[in-house]
Every structure is written in structure tokens, then in C-alpha cells.
Write a structure and sequence with these properties.
about 30% helix, globular, 5-stranded mixed β-sheet, alpha+beta
């Protein structure tokens, strides 16, 4: 069959992979974890262990490891994080502007004040459900 060696697979590591029970809990409700367990993928999206997640902080939904999350963790204001995988819990929440900046969503730049009108238009039109569907088909 043209193989020169054995295949490779990764054993389950509970420190790096979500267990079935953890995934079920995250798919049903908000769960609290230590904020130090949060990390980002290469595209700056927020992750816990081996899964993209959403975080609720200061009544805003975070989907990226943005400056606001980083600063809150560094200053000790955020020792735990409420996270979920369930997108239906996100419908009534406001999306963090710094997350849009972190993933460079359509050129959104929260720090450039001369683009306030453009940014306001992006915020008005942004739909997290659509973004999720397009990003993770």
C-alpha cells in the first residue's frame, strides 16, 4: 500500500483534551473555569483545551483572546471565566469590540478613532451566529 511506517495517533490527555462529560456540560450551559486555562489558536480565536469556546465577561461575549481579556487576567480582575460551546446562549449578549479587532474582522480597528463611523456600521451589522457559521462550517 506504499506505507513506510506505522500511523500516528494521540492518546487522550485530560489536560489538553475535553472529556465527553466536559463537552456535554459546555454544550448545555455556561461553565466556570480558571481563566489561566484560556488560550488562543493561531487565528486569535479563544480556546479551552482543544476546543473553540465563547466566554462571558462584563456582560459581553468574547470569541477571541482580545486585549480586554488579557488585561483582565493580568490585572487579577478575572480569575475565573464563564465559558460555553452552546451558541444559542449568545443571542442576547453584546459582542466584545476588542474581539472583532483581535481577529481583524473586516478591518475593524477599535483603537483608530478616525474610523468610528466605519466601526459603528460594522458593529451594527455584525451577527455572531453568521460569523460562527461562516468561520466553522
Amino acid at each position: 500500500m506504499g506505507m513506510e511506517g506505522y500511523g500516528q495517533f494521540e492518546l487522550f490527555d485530560p489536560n489538553r483534551h475535553l472529556s465527553w462529560q466536559e463537552r456535554q456540560n459546555l454544550n448545555s450551559n455556561w461553565n466556570d473555569i480558571s481563566s489561566s486555562a484560556l488560550h488562543a489558536y493561531g487565528d486569535k480565536t479563544l480556546a479551552y483545551k482543544n476546543s473553540h469556546i465563547f466566554c462571558l465577561n462584563d456582560d459581553k461575549v468574547h470569541f477571541a483572546l482580545c486585549d480586554q481579556i488579557k488585561n483582565s487576567i493580568q490585572q487579577g480582575k478575572m480569575t475565573s471565566a464563564s465559558i460555553t460551546l452552546k451558541t444559542s446562549l449568545l443571542t442576547d449578549c453584546t459582542v466584545c469590540q476588542y474581539c472583532l479587532h483581535a481577529v481583524d474582522y473586516q478591518g475593524f480597528d477599535v483603537y483608530r478613532h478616525r474610523h468610528q463611523e466605519y466601526n459603528a456600521n460594522i458593529l451594527k451589522q455584525f451577527n455572531l451566529q453568521t460569523y460562527i457559521t461562516n468561520k466553522y462550517p
